[in-house]
Amino acid sequence: MMRKLIFAAVFLCLVFPCSASPDYSSPDTWAYYAEGNGGETDLFIIAPTVDMGADGNMNMSLSDEKTKGNLVGALNMERGIFEDSTVMYSPFYRQMTFPVYAERISEEGEHLDIAYGDIREAFIYYLENINDGRPFILAGFSQGGQMTLMLLKEFFDEEELADQLIAAYVIGWRITDEDLEEYPHLKLAEREDDTGVIVSFNTEDVFVNDSIIVPEGVKTYGINPLNWKTDSTVADKSLNEGGCFTDYSGAIISEIPNLTGAYIDEERGTLKTLDIEPSDYSSSLFPDGVYHLYDYQFFFRNLQSNVSVRTEAWFMNCSLQETA
């Protein structure tokens, strides 16, 4: 399937020259290029959907400077989780616009081919010209999570590359039985300090049984970022180190310790909140109770801590292997 996507992306670029893929050898094609404070660890992070498709477009134009600014802003809302532990890289890409998701056509076709084609080229450039064998984290939210999972499917059956992966934060996107059966090299996180694994969850209220990301009847797999369990064990809100609500500069405008407890729903595999009033987090994009926009923010401090924990575990494992 991945090879077909690649050929389709090449075909589209030949037919529509104006949609040519960015030249990732130029730092100008990166939203983040060597940013952050982590000395030994990289982050390759993929932005969520920011283009609302108001002009009827199904893929973001890379000549749209305003939307590119919004893409950087969306990344900045998450950067505090990663920036003290990593050196950050994130490409601009011709992402699918929000109507592609609203119409539930985001998993096949030319719009996906264009978006993933860009991400794929950026990742290959990163590996061949920047990484130099360093350990790294993959991360993405929403569409960024979808793109991250696609990279994991295509590239990480290679043991050498998989060994460099500290963890992949595939947040706000689903991971299904079909994914795991077709790509058996995918490994889901089972605790707070395992490495080379996928950390994923989708947040919603207890009454929700359908969303754009996890449709009714679909089961996803995830882990609870409060107790790092994959079963329905309830994590009390006292385990929530702090929900942080950030602006487009990355500044924390509000922090709420012990914001909410949560548990994994056994049927849907989603992360159910216990202490959130749906009307407090209403959005024009999603029904009340679908907390997709807040996946990172509700559990900001726990995720921030976990990046450090998994990074330390990776280096410890590496040290043990060297001395064995």
Notable characteristics:
324 residues; alpha/beta; 9 helices; 11 strands; six-stranded mixed β-sheet; three-stranded mixed β-sheet
Strand order of the largest sheet: 1-3-2-4-5-6
How does the major sheet shape up?
A: 6 strands, mixed
General form: globular
User: How far is it from the N-terminal to the C-terminal residue, by CA?
Assistant: 40 Å
Q: Name the beta content range.
A: 15-25%
Beta strands, count: 11
The low-confidence parts are: 1-18
Average per-residue pLDDT, rounded, comes to 92
Secondary structure category = alpha/beta
Please compute the radius of gyration using only Cα atoms.
19 Å
Helix content: 25-40%
Give the number of helices: 9
N-to-C SSE string, H for helix and E for strand: HEEHEHHEHHEHEEEEEEHH
Structure overview:
Helix content is 35%, strand content 15%. The chain has 324 residues and is α/β, with parallel strands linked by helices. The strands form three sheets. Strands 1-3-2-4-5-6 form a six-stranded mixed sheet, with helices on both faces. Helix 1 (2-15) packs across helix 4 and helix 2 (65-82) crosses helix 9. The longest helix is centred in the last third of the chain and has 24 residues, at 300-323. Residues 1-18 have low confidence and may be disordered.
